[in-house]
Specification:
6-stranded mixed β-sheet, binds S-adenosylmethionine, alpha/beta
Length: 146
Amino acid sequence: MGFYSDIILPRLCDLAMRNRQLVPFRERVIGAAEGRVLEIGVGSGMNLPFYRPPVREVLALEPAPRLIAMARSASRASSMPVTFLEASAEAIPLDKHSVDTVVTTWSLCSIPQAATALAEMRRVLQPGGKLVCTAEVMMPIRGEAD
Ligand SMILES: C[S@@+](CC[C@H](N)C(=O)[O-])C[C@H]1O[C@@H](n2cnc3c(N)ncnc32)[C@H](O)[C@@H]1O
């Protein structure tokens, strides 16, 4: 932790992710979400305005406190209930099979232990739940019972 990671990096992330060209990808990915949603690496909250029913609630996971503060401000403009989890995707503080959809947009490449994070996403997804993410194509990955 330090000035760069606490102050500069969150601002750079926010600036970069405001790119208008990303909006169609956000609409497509968030439009596939439903039910109780866990968003991994919510950043400054750029996806939050796009959540609509059938999404019921959003659990917004993010390890950087300054980005959580920005996302909290963004969430005030949304009618969707948003709960913030200050945590890393490698150790998701949720029960297994407790969410319907996991969303990740441009976050997997930032997560140091991506394989561990994906295993965690699968653990918290309910059977039949789905992971929706930005990639070359949108890859639906279904949760499975043990
Ligand atoms: C390129 S930004 C994308 C932000 C947001 N998903 C968006 O679409 O605007 C990458 C995000 O991943 C987050 N991140 C980095 N390491 C992480 C980890 N271990 N677990 C969860 N998120 C992480 C960063 O803090 C940052 O918010």
